[in-house]
Design a protein that fits this description.
The structure is a homodimer of 186-residue chains.
Chain A: E1 2-8, E2 11-17, E3 19-22, E4 25-31, H1 35-40, E5 45-58, E6 66-80, H2 84-98, H3 111-116, E7 117-132, E8 150-158, E9 162-163, H4 175-178, H5 180-185
Antiparallel strand pairs in A: 1-2, 1-5, 3-4, 4-7, 5-6, 5-8, 6-7
């Protein structure tokens, strides 16, 4: 999930959206009727931020509490993809980013579905990454405080897959869903 | 974690940040020297978005794939908190939002630490929430397709807490850390 920022008449918007990446291009998609897609179609400057929260860092002092995380903030220009071939390719990139192996198994978009979908090409011009890892760094004199300190790992985890009520194949999920935890760990 | 959006000379920025909420006010904090804190101190329009991803929704057609999620997009004005009492109160609100029960156990911020910390008051003027739940909605003619469909739940989960190497109390984490999964489920 990326948080995509853009401005309309001086008012900033931040909209969560799924994405895929191909080299220095990010692709977003959405209903052709949506406000975000219409705004991003106009070639405006935008920002896309992705954040993974890895752990809470508990120190002895309030001040030194922190979070371990990885984030990237990318700046660039958003443009509408109008070429149908690039559009199909972009949707595959988004799908394979989210669920590698899924695209080839499902019904591809029809021309009508493709028309109802807007695809945005976001060209990354500049990006910065931030990472924090490791334990708390307390002030030396605070280490004697009788308070628990440490790190609490946090991770997005898959639960048990629920087959659709009208499924007409073996309800056991495919390999790429059974192993989804490894996708999230990347 | 909130994604906070603001614009500087027409360039949108989206920065991930921890937050706390008190009625219709969100509080953010950071180093007084950080660019985000400096920009948000100037009374500018901003946007704060929080997103929880609940599950992947796998349909028979690429087009009907979706995500179950809950998100809120809040618009408002950001301002620097300069009153030291409100500043301390805001830091407690952020801390208790993240780790309820923690604030009273740790060393409170010193005057020097308070000076090094900027606190932003973000007054929500308008907000919109979006929620998707439930199974995939395929086109009727696609239900016969021999492809797995269903929902894969996703949730941020705590792992096993790691006590700090220099801990000088019982290394068993406090109740509010052992039960952190219930905090995340709220």
């Amino acid at each position: 999930m990326a948080s995509v920022g853009f401005s309309v008449d001086g008012q900033p918007f931040v909209i969560p959206t799924l994405y895929g990446r191909s080299e220095s291009t990010l692709y977003f998609h959405g209903s052709a009727a949506s406000r975000m897609m219409k705004q991003l179609s106009t070639g405006i400057s935008a920002c896309a931020t992705v954040t993974l929260t890895d752990s809470l860092v508990l120190a002895r002092s309030a001040f030194h509490h922190s979070m371990n995380y990885r984030s990237v903030v990318a700046f660039g220009v958003a443009q509408l993809v109008s070429d149908p071939a690039e559009k199909r390719q972009a949707l595959e990139v988004i799908s394979e980013h989210l669920i590698p192996g899924r695209w080839s198994e499902v019904r591809a978009p029809s021309d009508k579905e493709l028309k109802a979908t807007a695809v945005i090409r976001f060209t990354i011009e500049e990006a910065s990454a931030k990472v924090r890892t490791g334990p708390a760094a307390d002030d030396e004199e605070d280490y004697v405080m009788p308070v628990w300190a440490g790190v609490l790992p946090l991770a997005l985890q898959p639960g048990e897959a629920v087959p659709d009520a009208r499924i007409c194949v073996n309800p056991e999920p495919p390999q790429y869903i059974r192993n989804y935890a490894t996708r999230l760990a990347r």
